[in-house]
Design a protein that fits this description.
The complex is a heterodimer of chains A (121) and B (193). Chain A has 121 residues and is mainly α. Chain A contains 6 helices and 3 strands, in the order ααβαβααβα. Chain A starts with a helix and ends with a helix. The chains are: A mainly alpha (121), B alpha/beta (193). At the A-B interface, helix 2, strand 1, helix 4, helix 5 and helix 6 of A face strand 3, strand 4, strand 5, strand 6 and helix 5 of B. Bound molecules: guanosine-5'-diphosphate (GDP) and magnesium ion (MG).
């Protein structure tokens, strides 16, 4: 625990300083079911955002429409692990809603919808 | 499944994915770009220098890390369904990433370049061993279509049930028909079990 203060300001950590600073010492996501395509969306009843970091607020803005975890990471330009930690914070606050299921193999109806959709683009 | 909030509002669509695999330079990113509704996005996973996936940031501060990048695109099917297309990262390393990509996927397109057929062997092995539906798409680089579909099937030692199609990954219509072929193949596989 004492080491946390040390690395916080440790220039030697190089490119990892920024991700670390963003997650403020939390190291793993509390929401375990965040996969690449898991859809997240900002709640329309989000709480007061004044206590949020810049990155959290950026996520809230991005997620005004539903996006995948991978898209949020790409738009924020941070590694997936970092965006998962940040999203977990927002999910815990109830500010971000998540589709809570691991990826399942699509059934026939879903495949038919995808087939029609792809043909139509 | 569609999730509806207490106010009856649609919360999030169902996400599905297709994996675009194959050796280096076979046209994976090109295919994603040709059908995606957005310019391909890039996201990165952290790895330790030893190539181990970082799923906890504890204990790696100050250590050397590297990243593995994924290219992906998006096709909004309708208000309830969104399709993601993921190009695979390099073969032979990063298999943990392939596992995550393949889990729950509709299936995979394995791109091959007939000038270097063997460069796509590891992709084919991967999907065969996991019983994930896949098709083989021969990317016809200009004037390099040296073999027929049957010759490619034979050279790759593919089961008769695996579709092999020719394509131009730069062409949107061509890439679309590759995706259509894969989805139909997945539906047939579903009907067969
Ligand atoms: N002539 C031709 N070039 C292609 C085709 N598909 C891809 N390329 C080129 O081949 C190179 C490798 O393609 P890329 O999509 O980056 O391959 P990846 O490594 O599988 O993602 C790029 O320079 C593309 O522009 C094709 O169908 N015909
Ligand atoms: Mg590529």
């Amino acid at each position: 625990m004492t080491s946390r203060e040390d690395w916080w300001y440790d220039e030697a950590a190089g490119p990892l300083v920024r991700p670390y600073a963003m997650v403020r010492g939390r190291t793993r996501p509390n929401a375990p079911d965040l996969h690449l395509v898991t859809q997240v969306r900002a709640s329309s009843f989000a709480s007061d955002q004044t206590s949020l970091t810049v990155e959290h607020r950026e996520i809230m803005a991005l997620c005004a429409r539903p996006l995948s975890v991978a898209e949020v990471a790409a738009y924020l330009d941070v590694p997936l692990i970092v965006v998962k930690v940040l999203l977990s914070d927002l999910i815990e606050r109830g500010d971000v809603l998540v589709q809570n299921s691991s990826p399942k193999i699509p059934d026939r109806n879903l495949l038919q919808a995808v087939l029609d959709g792809v043909r139509g683009i | 499944m569609v999730f509806v909030g207490s106010d009856g509002q649609l919360i999030v669509p169902t996400a599905v994915k297709i994996v675009i695999a194959g050796g280096f330079g076979t046209g994976k990113t090109t295919m994603v770009a040709s059908v995606s509704e957005i310019p391909p996005l890039r996201t990165e996973e952290l790895l330790t220098e030893a190539g181990v996936h970082v799923d906890d940031l504890a204990g790696i501060e100050g250590k050397d890390t590297t990243t593995v990048a994924l290219d992906f695109g998006r096709i909004t099917i309708n208000t309830k369904v969104v399709l993601y297309l993921f190009g695979t990262p390099g073969q032979n390393r990063f298999w943990f990433m392939w596992d995550e990509l393949a889990t729950g996927a509709i299936g995979a397109v394995v791109l091959v370049d007939t000038r270097r057929l063997d460069s796509s062997f590891p992709s084919i092995d991967f999907f065969e061993h996991r019983a994930i539906p896949f098709i083989v798409a021969v990317n016809c680089f200009d004037g390099s279509q040296l073999y027929t579909v049957d010759e490619v099937r034979h050279a790759l030692d593919l089961d008769e049930a695996i579709p092999v199609v020719l394509c131009d990954a730069r062409d949107r219509e061509s890439s679309k028909s590759v995706l259509v072929e894969l989805i139909q193949h997945s539906m047939n596989r579903l009907a067969a079990v």
